[in-house]
Every structure is written in structure tokens, then in C-alpha cells.
Design brief:
- The complex is a heterodimer of chains A (84) and B (207).
- Chain A is mainly α and 84 residues long.
- The longest helix of chain A has 26 residues.
- The two termini of chain A are 32 Å apart.
- The N terminus of chain A is likely disordered.
- By secondary structure, chain B is α+β, with helices and mostly antiparallel strands.
- Chain B is elongated and about 55 Å long.
- Classes of the chains: A mainly alpha (84), B alpha+beta (207).
- At the A-B interface, helix 2 of A face loops of B.
């Protein structure tokens, strides 16, 4: 009985974990934020974005990135629950 | 207490020492050697320096200065942020990683890294395949190697780093200029020379 429970339970945990990961990846897309940071830098270097706008955007993106990275860190330590 | 911030590794020879604006406000860059290899370092207070724009730029600048130091030195560049809190640990790395240093130096001896980003002007219609072909024809023939750095923006059409022998530098510059001349609607961002970061795969745990 215990063994059966265990077997049934495991895939279920797997799915929930996967759903958490997908939800978090969408909410906190580290890669997309990193790309945006690089794009911001590129447009500034090409002279298409002025310094003030570049710095404002950089600060904003870095703050978002920090939150995103923290969220992923907490997910991997199992302390985050995603409510939908 | 003062720690050592590492820029890269050179073959031990003439010691490197010069005054410059170094990472973390230091003013002198020098070498710490263990037999065949030397680390190019400056003193720093922190053990985990924050990568500010200014310090990232200083890191690059110092590497460039070493590349033109004396008759020009080949350096294995380290990524930003490597700090040792004692010289013995640093010398242990210089001893332990000798085979990796030897291989890497052989690959990058006398070479520099050049970066090329090709960006489409807003709303420009671009034949990406034709551009890529033209770039390959002209640049891959001269370069010793290249790596793709990824298209992180919709505006980017091409983003690569090239490893180029110093002697081929002029030919490479000309090829890039020709490509730029023959492609309207595209912006060419050509950068360098840098220490060949993209062609060095050495990661060292500093602690």
C-alpha cells in the first residue's frame, strides 16, 4: 500500500514541479531580461538611445533581473509556490 | 587586508608593472609568478567586487594595455571578478593549471579578438542569408576562428567574435569596411581588439 502510494505520488509531484517551473519561467524570464539589457546597451552604443534613457532602462531591467534570479533560486530550494 | 584581483595569465618573462586605473580604484598592475606562468594582478579590498560599468571597462582596458606592453604580450584573459585572498592559493592555481595554460596560450598566441554586430536599420528589409554568406566568404577566410554570440535583439542580423592573427588585422579591417560599403540599410558595429575572451575556456575557482 505504501509502495503504491509512493509510486502514484511521484509523477504527480513531478508534474506540479514542472508547472511551477513553467509558470516561473514565464513570469520571471531571466534570459529575456538579459537579452533586453544587451539590446539596451547596443542601441545606446549605436546612438539610437540617449544616455538618460539608457540608464533609466538599465536600472529598471537590472532590478527586474534581480527579482527574477531570486525567484528561480527560491524555486530550486522549494520555497516558492505559484498560485494561479 | 588587501587581496589580488586577477586580469589574466601570461608566460613568465619580463615582469609586467605599470601604473593605470585598475579595478576597484587600484593604481598599479603587476605580476605574481610561479615558474612558467604569471598572473597579472592589482590589489583590491573586496573579495567579490561588483561588476560596475566603470570597473568592467577598466578590466578590459588593463588587458588591452598588457597586449601592447613592451613588444606586445599574449595574455589568457580571465572573466571579471576573480579575486584571491592569498598569494599562495594563486600560485597553486598557476602550478595546477599549467597544462590548460599551455594549450590555451598556444591557441591564442599573437592573436586578438574582434567583434562584429550587424544591425538592421529600423524597418529595413534584409536578406539575412545573403548577408551571412557574404560575411562568411570575406571574414572566415581571414580569421583563425569565430564564435556566434547569439541574436539577442530583433534588430540584430549577425553577432560574432573573430579570432584574428595580429598580422592579418589590416586585411580583416578592410574586409569589414568592404562589407559595410556594399550593404545598405545595415549598421556595422565593429569592435576591438580585445583579449580573446571568447576563445578561452578556463574557469578557475578563486577560493
Amino acid at each position: 500500500m505504501f509502495i503504491l502510494d509512493d509510486l502514484l505520488f511521484r509523477p504527480f509531484v513531478g508534474i506540479i514541479d514542472a508547472l511551477h517551473t513553467i509558470a516561473l519561467d514565464e513570469l520571471y524570464d531571466v534570459r529575456a531580461l538579459e537579452d533586453e539589457l544587451k539590446e539596451n546597451q547596443l542601441l545606446y552604443e549605436l546612438g539610437e538611445r540617449d544616455r538618460a534613457e539608457y540608464e533609466r532602462r538599465k536600472e529598471e531591467l537590472e532590478a527586474e533581473l534581480e527579482i527574477a534570479r531570486e525567484a528561480h533560486e527560491q524555486l530550486s530550494s522549494g520555497r516558492v509556490e505559484v498560485k494561479t | 587586508m588587501s587581496n589580488r584581483y586577477v586580469y589574466g595569465i601570461v608566460e613568465t618573462g619580463e615582469p609586467v608593472e605599470f601604473d593605470t586605473e585598475a579595478v576597484g580604484g587600484a593604481e598599479t598592475v603587476y605580476t605574481i609568478s610561479h615558474r612558467r606562468y604569471s598572473a597579472v594582478v592589482s590589489d583590491i579590498e573586496e573579495t567579490e567586487p561588483e561588476e560596475t560599468d566603470e570597473d568592467a571597462q577598466r578590466h578590459d582596458e588593463v588587458l588591452r594595455e598588457i597586449m601592447t606592453y613592451g613588444d606586445g604580450r599574449t595574455i589568457i584573459p580571465m572573466q571579471f571578478g576573480m579575486v584571491f585572498d592569498n598569494d599562495r592559493a594563486l600560485k597553486n592555481v598557476l602550478r595546477g593549471a599549467q597544462p590548460a595554460f599551455r594549450r590555451t596560450l598556444r591557441d591564442i598566441e599573437g592573436k586578438v579578438e574582434l567583434g562584429l554586430k550587424v544591425v538592421r536599420e529600423e524597418d529595413a528589409d534584409v536578406d539575412e542569408e545573403a548577408l551571412e554568406e557574404a560575411v562568411d566568404d570575406r571574414l572566415e577566410a581571414i580569421a583563425e576562428g569565430s564564435v556566434d554570440n547569439g541574436l539577442f535583439s530583433d534588430r540584430l542580423v549577425l553577432n560574432r567574435s573573430y579570432l584574428v592573427d595580429r598580422e592579418d588585422r589590416e586585411a580583416f579591417d578592410e574586409a569589414v569596411a568592404d562589407l559595410e560599403d556594399s550593404h545598405d540599410g545595415l549598421l556595422f558595429q565593429y569592435t576591438g581588439p580585445f583579449a580573446p575572451y571568447s576563445f578561452v575556456d578556463i574557469h578557475i575557482g578563486a577560493q
